[in-house]
Design a protein that fits this description.
With 362 residues, this protein is an alpha/beta fold. Helices cover 36% and strands 16% of the residues.
Length: 362
């Protein structure tokens, strides 16, 4: 869904009566923007405080007052996107002055949509955003949200017992370059396998990966929950590894990806968004049962309540921007060895392009 997208400063304002809990379609016209730093609020601050310098020292901090901004956030239907849904339905975004609309879209579209401004933000795995950002999409990552959610599965009777045995095998993924393919390429690399040459990556719709595995069209699935989890629970697959094991264990699975124009033109809103999203992650960790019901009742994920709740229990909910930043440069240096990045890419230069420092201290 790449393409040009004009973002005006004027347009319709989101109706207070809109149901913010219902996922929208990405084809809905882009929502309008408001100029946060325009109008009587600023004028009053400047007049009363003695000029622009005084106003700059009184700008809001996250949660300290209304931002009055409407945003569109994409999601793909994964159980791990729970922090987004929690922040929406528990009024956390509203508390931070944000009106949020969630938009269901495909794994192969979401990055271009964020970069083009058709979406203001989306959750995503760090490694899967490196190549798009290297190639110039207008987006950055600001904070880590939680641990866990990716796994490789094989048929129950498969002779494959280690990642090293995936050489010359066909691995099913939901999209080329998606979160699972990007992350597990590192495990393949550690096993002496060139992920761009020694395996075949084959794309299937996420909810059809398990069936493709059962039919023998692929020898393994690299997927996110619930797509890689449901075949396991049904006894139709066996887990080979996941992203909480081994040398590449991630401190954070999903991160917050933010549109670059939003970051440049409205950093206060971006800061409020990331802060609220993190609060949603902490709420999930303290309310697993309620979160599972929220995801199932609103049809955000295609799985049973017990499956969702048991899956949520396997994740860790300690969101952080401070701990996320140090992972970026070494992560890029390792990911570069997969061959997916340009050989001329400087890891430190790319790290600066990837991370959005919003001055967050958690």
């Amino acid at each position: 869904m790449a393409g040009e997208h004009e973002q005006g400063d004027a347009g319709r304002e989101t109706d207070e009566s809109e149901d913010l809990g219902a996922p929208a379609e990405l084809e809905v016209p882009a929502l309008s923007r408001r100029k946060l730093f325009a109008g009587a609020g600023i004028a009053a601050a400047v007049v009363a405080g003695g000029g622009v310098g005084a106003w700059l020292t009184t700008r809001r901090t996250p949660g300290a007052g209304p931002v009055n901004r409407a945003l569109k956030i994409g999601f793909g239907g994964g159980i791990c996107e729970a922090p987004l849904f929690a922040a929406l339905h528990q009024g956390i975004f509203e508390k931070h002055g944000l009106q949020v609309e969630v938009v269901k879209t495909g794994a192969d579209e979401i990055k271009d949509a964020v970069g083009a401004g058709k979406l203001d933000a989306a959750p995503g795995i760090f490694f899967s955003w490196l190549k798009p950002i290297e190639q110039g999409i207008d987006a950055k990552l600001a904070a880590g949200l939680h641990e866990g959610c990716l796994r490789i599965i094989v048929p129950p009777d498969s002779p494959i017992t280690s990642v090293a045995q995936l050489r010359n095998k066909t691995i099913g993924v939901a999209a080329i370059g998606d979160s699972s393919m990007s992350f597990f390429s590192l495990d393949l690399l550690d096993a002496g396998i060139n992920p761009s040459q020694d395996v075949e990556w084959r794309v299937f719709p996420g909810d059809q990966l398990g069936d493709a595995l059962a039919r023998g069209e692929i020898q393994a699935v690299a997927g996110s929950d619930p797509n890689a989890l449901l075949p396991l629970l049904k006894g139709k697959a066996r887990e080979l590894t996941n992203n909480q094991q081994g040398a590449n264990r991630e401190l954070f699975c999903c991160a917050t990806a933010i549109n670059g124009r939003l970051l440049r033109e409205d950093p206060d809103t971006a800061r409020a968004l990331v802060t609220a999203w993190a609060e949603g992650s902490r709420w999930v960790g303290a309310n697993l049962g309620q979160t599972a019901a929220l995801e199932v009742d609103n049809k955000y994920v295609a799985a049973d309540l017990t499956v969702v709740e048991s899956t949520l229990k396997t994740y860790g909910y300690n969101p952080s921007a401070v701990k996320f930043k140090p992972e970026i440069t070494p992560g890029i240096e390792k990911f570069a060895k997969t061959g997916y990045l340009d050989r001329k890419t400087d890891s430190r230069v790319l790290a600066d392009k990837v991370f959005a420092d919003l001055g967050l201290t958690w």
